[in-house]
TrEMBL record:
Boundaries of every N-acetyltransferase domain copy: 12-149
Keywords assigned by UniProt, alphabetized: Transferase
Leader peptide range in chain numbering: none
Name the UniProt record assigns to this protein: N-acetyltransferase
Organism: Acetobacter nitrogenifigens DSM 23921 = NBRC 105050
Length: 149
């Protein structure tokens, strides 16, 4: 099944997508419960305000999903923190989050911008539906962690 970035990706009743990043505590909780690497409250307090665009999904009063766009706004954009509470998987939340971010990118970011992400586990299947491709062997994703001395 292919998604068009102009589709609305409707959520089931009881779910609502909101523009903006979740609060620091919800952000840290979602990273942990969704299986992403845990982050400290201090790192989140420093990093989240630098988000170019973010969305989160609420189920009632609970924040159950999120995603962010970071970068310089013209040359490079990186999509990060796509996370959904496991109890809410299979509801189209991930598609709604990525769809909202991609609609924003198409609306405000220059056409020559390089948009990238790192796909954990089987998440590449979701991203592929939005036009993302594996760049290996032409490029290889690499990373390092900065640790306390």
């Amino acid at each position: 099944m292919s998604f068009n970035v102009t589709d609305d990706h409707p959520l089931p009743d009881g779910y609502a997508l909101h523009v903006g990043v979740p609060d620091v505590a919800a952000y840290c909780r979602l990273r942990t419960t969704s299986g992403l690497t845990p982050r400290s409250l201090q790192a989140a307090r420093t990093g989240l305000p630098n988000t170019l665009y973010g969305v989160h999904v609420a189920h009632g009063s609970d924040i159950v999903g999120m995603g962010r766009m970071i970068g310089d706004g013209a040359l490079f954009i990186h999509i990060v923190d796509i996370a959904v509470e496991p109890a809410h998987h299979g509801q189209g939340i991930g598609s709604a989050i990525v769809g909202a971010i991609m609609r924003h990118i198409r609306a405000v970011i220059p056409a020559e911008t390089y948009v990238s992400l790192m796909a954990n586990g089987g998440a590449w299947r979701l991203y592929e539906r939005f036009g993302f491709e594996n760049v290996f062997p032409d490029a290889r994703g690499m990373a390092t962690w900065i640790s306390a001395q």
